[in-house]
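Q: What would this chain look like folded?
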Amino acid sequence: MIIHDCEQGTPEWKLLRASKPTSSRFGSLVTGTGKPSDGMAAYALELATEAYIGGPLDDGFAGNKYTERGKELEPVSAADYEMTHQVKIQHVGFITDDLLRWGTSTDGLVGNDGIVEFKNLIARRFMELLVKVKKTNKTPPVYIPQIQGELFITERKWCDIVFYHPQFEPIVHRHYPIPEFQAVLKAQLIACLAERNNILKLVKS
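A: My prediction, written as structure tokens:
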């Protein structure tokens, strides 16, 4: 594991991420139930494009009012988590495996063993989540690829996913590594990089 000292969202951070599979997109490689996803080919093409042009795509998602609100609330949700759990979050820029093949921009490291991921939802989405959690007592599967991906890359023992809205009680679910899930994820990561490289070889021939 390599921790890269940069601020998330900066040009340096974007360049580090370019052409590498990142945990926020692992849902394109594996489903929330641990099965290979049919989105791998499209993701590999996207990564090949970034490798070919030498940087991030210029047509990537630039955010909207919901993502901007999430960024604004993250310091608040982080402070709430630190106070409630009596811990200190170490904020990091970008973390890769030792070979710089794939990476994650986790929201923070906690102590020697943990990581934390914040999801700052609008009220309607938080209520929808609350209903699902009350029925199942589980984190919705859509978040699992990112969580397991962050655990896989950081080699940490647990991840707290924190769903936050200032007018609700935070929902905190602790997740642990699932070896079977991570084995599928690793196989998909290797296959995705192979497809990326095959595309590059073809267009450069």
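The helical segments are 11-17, 40-53, 65-85, 123-136, 144-154, 179-204.
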